[in-house]
């Protein structure tokens, strides 16, 4: 009898974990509407970061309307629809970007500080500038990849501009993104070699989703270069960024979090009035690429 029952604990474990695992991944699409955790419409307007648990399960009618044209599409049709939806945004000047980043990247624990992208360090908002110890405006889509500079347009699009330490920004330079290399001493968890930069784990997905946004927003028809992703490193000044296969993995490994959602909301409400579709629907990256 005992010989026949040896497998029962294993069967029990299967039912516990065998069902738990699929439900965790099946939770991903539902999670794409979690930006509603941050934005709750009230009589007085929109409140960011409501503390009530009931807000967690409220689906966002706003994004359903916003993305209506993309509904049911995939591949190039989805990319085109998203491009039409997010184009025509309000463009900031390069000097306006400073103040915008002080709001979008504010340290939730200290309103006097911003969080720096690659180090996740909290630093005084007042230390914006170009000297050692300052933070400046990192173009995650390197501005030399397409040579769009800092004129109003891709060079000032805060969906991909983030505060970074001056020295770390300079070390990343215009590298493409890929795994591997040596750790950069001033930015623990970040790795680099001759042609690529690997950001630390908790911002890998953020970087990927910013680049997905840029490739869809800029299609070459409005005076700006057609930015596209490819599977290479060392793209130089071509309007391309890589490495696409790695970015798609990072999008999975580092899911959208509340800071990213809050940031997207602020850009939409207060500055550009367009959204990063890949923060609202990270699964769309795999449907396009
Ligand atoms: Ca490399
Ligand atoms: Ca992240
Ligand atoms: Ca493009």
Automatic annotation (TrEMBL):
UniProt key word Nucleus:
no
Region described as Disordered: spans on this chain: 177-197
Q: Which InterPro entries match?
A: Endonuclease-I (IPR007346), His-Me_finger_sf (IPR044925)
Q: Which SUPFAM superfamilies match?
A: His-Me finger endonucleases
GO terms (molecular function) for this protein are: hydrolase activity; nuclease activity
Checking Pfam families in the record gives: Endonuclease_1 (PF04231)
Give TM segment ranges.
Answer: none
Q: Which PANTHER family match?
A: ENDONUCLEASE-1 (PTHR33607)
- Name-wise, this protein is Extracellular ribonuclease
Record gene name: bsn
